[in-house]
Amino acid sequence: MRIHHILSLLTFATMGCTTLPQFQKVTNGNGYMIKDLSGKNHFEVSLLFDANFPTGMTKKYGWRAVGEECLSRGFHYFSFSDDSALNFQGFCYTENVFTGLGVTFEGNGLKKLPAEFLVESVNNKKPTFLKLGDRLVSVEKSKLTSMSSLRALMIALPTDKTTVTVEFEREGKFQKAVEPLVNLRGGLLGKSDLEDLRASVK
Question: Which of 31, 68, 75, 131 sits in a 20 to 30 Å window from 202, CA-based?
Fold first, then answer.
């Protein structure tokens, strides 16, 4: 689902609501604040508002903040994770390519707190040590608690790294394996998506 379709759904859900504060980067007052995390390509966005707004409206504000910040840092593509209605993690990329495990996790499990990473599909990945139904517990000895935690681990890896050590639960037993990484092409947000966000959040 591309960003313009998501925005149309959020706009419909928040019709008639109060207008958000002016879009701006701040250190205090109404706007958004940036905190660097693992590197230039990974940061946190915090929204600072003196009033409460519907989640659909604050998401659009936060998403635009991620896109603008990545652009200002010299990146052409971006993605984000919603940690809450007012806190987001931004991930920046030079190309529409990102490194990942190449497997799909069951959606309802990811919505839990903390998230549960149940392998739903390995997407014809070969080779892989993961199987349908495995519960991924950690990557490189870092416990997974949310999609933000997994994305943060992936984006912080050295560019020449081709495998990671994973721990997973299978049929009640915990196991470890060296899992190959894959370069996933497409799916990131770019210039046209940022233009849609700019049109939605002034």
Answer: 75
**Are residues 107 and 144 located together in one domain of the fold?**
yes
Q: Which of 36, 80, 31, 79 is nearest to 58 (CA)?
A: 31
The count of structural domains within the chain is 2
* Whole-structure pTM value: 0.86
One domain, residues 7 and 81: yes
Does one domain contain both 13 and 89? yes
- The residue with greater pLDDT, 19 or 117, is 117
The number of residues in the chain equals 202
Domain encompassing residue 130: 98-183
Q: What Cα–Cα distance (Å) separates residue 152 from each residue in 6, 90, 98, 142, 146?
A: 23, 9, 12, 11, 10
User: Among 69, 73, 91, which Cα is nearest to 147's?
Assistant: 91
* Residue 6 vs residue 66, higher pLDDT: 66
**15 confidence band (pLDDT: 50, 70, 90):** very low
Which H/E stretch holds residue 193?
Answer: helix 191-200
Contacts of 118 (CB under 8 A, 6+ apart): 105, 106, 109, 133, 134, 135, 136
Amino acid at 52: N
Domain shared by 88 and 119, yes or no: no
Tokens of 202: 């002034």
